[in-house]
Amino acid sequence: MSNTIKEKEGPIEQFYDAMEVGLTTLSDNAAERMQARARRFMETIVDYKELMMMYTCAMKEIQTKFEILNTEFSVRYRRNPIASITTRLKTTASITEKLARYNCSLSVENIEKYIHDVGGVRVICSYIDDIYLIADALLAQDDITLLRRKDYIANPKPNGYRSLHLIVTVPVFFADRKLDMKVEVQIRTIAMDFWASLEHQMKYKQEIPAQDEIAEELRLCAETIRQTDERMLDIRKKIEAAADAEDEDDLLLEKLSRIDIGI
């Protein structure tokens, strides 16, 4: 056996070649134990990557469902309740840290059992009532199962955070099997999201001067945002009430003009 690693081999092959070079100086039993340990390590990495792929596919399923609902509402009701949709996959560091808080080691089994927000979908709406409208529409679908619901809009966190959180499962069809995958869905207004982004910056910045004072200002801003969201909703309802008085033929023509836009 050559004592050099082939440069043209892939990373996994190079890893095993390096192990083989190093194991030549060990006893047979020690070499076998080290090889077995290395193989288990590589298998864990492969299983982890596959699990992350599955969560990514589950997020795509939920995102597509919301996009379909948004298109439907655009044609049926002449407006889009959803302003934007984003997805995020929890980082390995964040997963490891969360498992450590549960006194659990990093493994595929522990991730699936203890962490419910590996895959996340965030939906931003213009108005408060749209949040519940699209949440109910999603949960009404027969392939969606609700595991947990936390309404931080009706019951904000002490710091002022407001959002609707849902933990759901969605079936994902792979080449050889179907799996029900968990996804966390966060639904909030544009104003709530703006506040949450600023609060997130403060939360993860170290040694901010007057941090308590800033936190109090953010809490007061959250209350202002709540009032603004409610006023904007009231204004929209007044506009819609005026539109309801329009001639039915005019409304039909407007809907027809939006069909191509919605599709």
Put the structure in a nutshell.
With 263 residues, the chain is of the alpha+beta class. The protein has helices spanning 11-23, 28-77, 92-101, 108-114, 128-139, 190-204, 211-243, 248-262, and strands at 82-89, 119-125, 145-151, 164-173, 178-189.
How would you portray this structure in words?
The chain starts with 10 loop residues before the first helix and ends with a helix. The protein contains 8 helices and 5 strands. Strands 1-2-5-4-3 form a 5-stranded mixed β-sheet. The chain is flat. Strand 4 and strand 5 (178-189) form a beta hairpin. Helix content is 59%, strand content 17%. Helix 1 (11-23) runs antiparallel to helix 2 (28-77) and helix 6 (190-204) runs antiparallel to helix 7.
The strand order across the widest sheet is 1-2-5-4-3
Per DSSP E runs of 2 or more residues, the count of β-strands stands at: 5
Q: In angstroms, what separates the terminal alpha carbons?
A: 63 Å
Mean pLDDT, as a whole number? 84
Shape by Cα distribution: flat
Q: Give the SSE string.
A: HHEHHEHEEEHHH
Low-confidence stretches: 1-7
Task: Please outline the major beta sheet.
Answer: 5 strands, mixed
How large is the radius of gyration?
25 Å
How big a fraction of the residues is strand?
Answer: 15-25%
Find the structural class using helix and strand composition.
Answer: alpha+beta
Helix content bin: 55-70%
SS field, number of helical segments? 8
